[in-house]
Amino acid sequence: MSAKIIKNLDEIPTEIIETDLLIIGGGNAGCFAAYEAKTQNPSLRVTIMEKAHISRSGALAAGMDAINTYLREDKGETPEKLVKWSRAQMGGGPIREDLALSNAEILNETVDLLEEWGLPIVRDEGGQYKLRGRYDISIQGEQLKPIMAEKAMEAGAQVLNRVAATNLLIEGERCIGAMGFGVRDGKFYVIRAKATIVSTGGACGIYKSPVTDYSGSHHQTWMCPFNVGTGYAMGIRAGAEMTSLEQRWVAVRTKDFCGPVDTIAVGYGCLMINGKGERIMEERYAHVGGEKAPRFFRLNAPMNEWLEGRGPTYVDTRVLDPEEAKDLRTDLLNERPTFVLFLASLGIDITKEPVEIYGSDPYIVGGHTGSGYWVGIDRMTTVPGLFAAGEAAGGSPNKFVGGCGSEGRLATRGALGYLKKVSLPPADSAQVEQEKKRVFAPFLRGPEFDGINPVEMEERLQRLMDEYAGGVHQFYRMNEERLVQALKHIRKLQDQAELLYAGELHDLMSAHEVIDRLNVAEVLVHHLLFRKETRWPGWQTRMDYPEVDPKLDCFVESVRDPKTGEVKVFTRPYEQLIPGDRTKG
Amino acid sequence: MPPKVDREKCDGCKVEKEPLCEQVCPGDLMTLGEDKKAYCRMARDCWDCMSCVKICPKGAMETRIPYQIGYHGAKLIPLMGTNTITWTLIDINGKVERFHYINRGSLD
Q1: A252-359 belongs to which CATH class?
Q2: What is the pLDDT of residues A82-98, one digit of tens each?
């Protein structure tokens, strides 16, 4: 396909598929959604649309070393306690406690399923899952993603690998599937479905990564760089309501290589220290909980050390004995194997030298913070027929692996209830033709076109977001005028998206990835502008409004009008269901 | 971080419709050159998940750390067994370590 120059849209075949349940994105949530659907109703037609190959796609491609949330009932843990903890981790919220509670209630079942499927989970002497934190359990999860994928396939879901989704199929107000294109076969796909679940993961690459500057490693990011926010973007374009996008996830990571720090710090007790050897959290953040402070404080703390002249910053691995250092690196091989290679490439003995840490680039990830689609308790978005799961679903943070899988199951339950009541309307050929034209436009322009290649535009977006909308190089700080400037540039890029060209199908995918990122960036900036306060320093630092404003103790929401492109921002109230001090876990 | 392909070892997975590294790469980065050897089309875009290295039947792939962030000469080689994985790690000083563990099934 790539060698053949296509000049005419009619040369591109259209494949129409009808199904009962369409799942866009075959990651963790998508695989669990498919498994749940086929288990509940084996005769249901379930189709997964996956832009890579489900055996190693998405954020779990390299594996995982822990399940961050599991309720040890023998330790007195309950769904209510987990929700309280999650709320406290967000500095008191607001969070959607209704969603979080319903998720927590089925969380253990999801994790137990993984073990039954063949995921090695470490057990303690009493035969219980071994804890490495209050809710963290250790796994040997190198095969985590292949295991999930096999179960989705064995259950009988139809898997369309290498088909990238580009837009939802909308009939009136309702979602009746999605469209996209084959990254390998070059076909245009129209998938008509009674109900649709979007589980495309979060958005990475909206901002420039701290490592991009000085190496060829453009994708030296913590979040999977192939998760570009397509799920959010499709919803934004269709007028779906988004929540809490301004609650950006930024994490403290190892410096130069964006590797995991929680495994080292939480799992192995290597505390964060500054250049003078002081324990940062104890020394300066005792008032917000010290080592147990909410995650945004843990991110912002080392960055403030740099700003205030006490860098570099480290996790103090010198407390480890050689055996522990080996165990730690074994864990890391399960999650981020090349981080172990990175340490070997520095040639340091981590029991003698601490490991440097720094902040990551910001991500929009609803499995970690509250960013994503606004959903009901049935996980239906504000677009009827469209459900959201995993990182795509907003309001309920700290879901991580177990919670995102659970969310996939819950979205399926909601979708099954919905699709019983509906039938599939006839195809709207005008909408399909319009999308086909939009999708293949960069490809029809061809590689010789005097325009913009997707990489150029992506880098331009990432730098402007970094500079004007609080990226790592600006220590996450922002103000009104800079955000307005960011919007101005984003709109210019959106205008110039008409000039994107692609020579190969891979480049065509990259072109749509940058178009999707522009939609997410635009709405994100509107959210950041609206929150005229600093509620989660580091994640959301407004230099012009440095304090918490009690009037903004609510959700910030947005809807983009599909006809005019205007983004409307408004609020929804927070409802406290679990009583007690919101900042205490 | 680009996976480096050993052109002597890579046979382009002759019997497959497309090579396994191309099938599995989450970023759609691996593909076959005109010489029927696999290569990474955008080295800068690799996330270094090592899926290609793990699946290569010829052991022809190696993930390298770019010199800008790590010194030259370190190696990490996975060997996939039945329900186990064995990693060989060599640091820049030539120190060799092995990590062997179960990656599927019960740990009992």
Answers
A1: alpha beta
A2: 999 999 999 999 999 99
